[in-house]
């Protein structure tokens, strides 16, 4: 059992023992700021910045010739990055590509696989997933002429916080054609058993896709074991590839022969792409689901930060993430519960993602007060302060200081100085 101590010296000792401590220097950590929002937008790394500036310099020097430099690397950039990302989820190199954004990639996956029949036409979802997933599902159902109130099967949460895996499996009835679920719930940090759920879906002949937005870069996945049909994720949270960075798309190689639901000229076979034929010559791998020209400035920072991920390895990242989130929860139990704070995420390592769900009835105003103290948290309705001690750049001392500040805010009731009126970006 992990033993933690409630002292600043203990936090400093943990930092001295941290095998990832040197990596912090490669991120742009601002003075007097405790950044706990890496599960929403990761910090900029020096590696990402250098990679972006390199591509800008190439454009400045070569113009359109940028597509030919470095052995056509940037014309094939999606393959270069896809191969690097595939290693984080133990997938085949050609099963992962980078393109567009998460929402469009959800549309791509569903439009490819959703082939409703009168007997099997429903899409199964949960009621706690991030809203963009539901928006995409509902609109795809409408495009097929169905009413989402009938064709979208929602598995309800029993408590508004967690989802029952048994309920998901029980919901896999004969009328379900496709399933879309999150690997980690964005609000409560619950980590679902992807391998079990995927196996149960396939037993019933159901296509299943996963949204990895809140797990990629924090949790190692083994897609050779999980064996999903498709998956999507963004790269700007734990992956720290920048605001609105290019997103990723995985498709199982057993489906390479399928026609993309949304076809575009960059999904064409590279051998024939510039023949500009009107008949689509589909590239038979994940890159065949590309649509338009790749945005190099959105992709380059991802290449930079992937250097760090491959240098460190997901196992070390996950080990520290589990330890430092457990440390944070321990301090909450020791010092904050008496002030109305509580933990809303699962405690077990195998059920917990990379952030801590801190619950308080004054969560929104506490978040405002935290920012005044130089802490950057994340708020989610109705009462959740999301805190992500990202393994690559958050220290144990940061966590200790954070809890001190949360305690001070509660003792002095500083949150009463702030309005409950929501700002444009919460």
From TrEMBL:
Pfam families cross-referenced by the UniProt entry: KYNU_C
Gene (UniProt): kynU
Alphabetical list of PANTHER family matching this protein: KYNURENINASE
One GO term describing the cellular component: cytoplasm
UniProt similarity note: Belongs to the kynureninase family.
Positions carrying N6-(pyridoxal phosphate)lysine: 237
Biological process, per Gene Ontology: anthranilate metabolic process; L-kynurenine catabolic process; L-tryptophan catabolic process to kynurenine; NAD+ biosynthetic process; quinolinate biosynthetic process
Catalytic activity: L-kynurenine + H2O = anthranilate + L-alanine + H(+); 3-hydroxy-L-kynurenine + H2O = 3-hydroxyanthranilate + L-alanine + H(+)
HAMAP family xrefs: Kynureninase
Name under which the protein is recorded: Kynureninase
UniProt entry tagged with the keyword tRNA processing: no
Domain of life the protein comes from: Bacteria
Assembly, per entry: Homodimer.
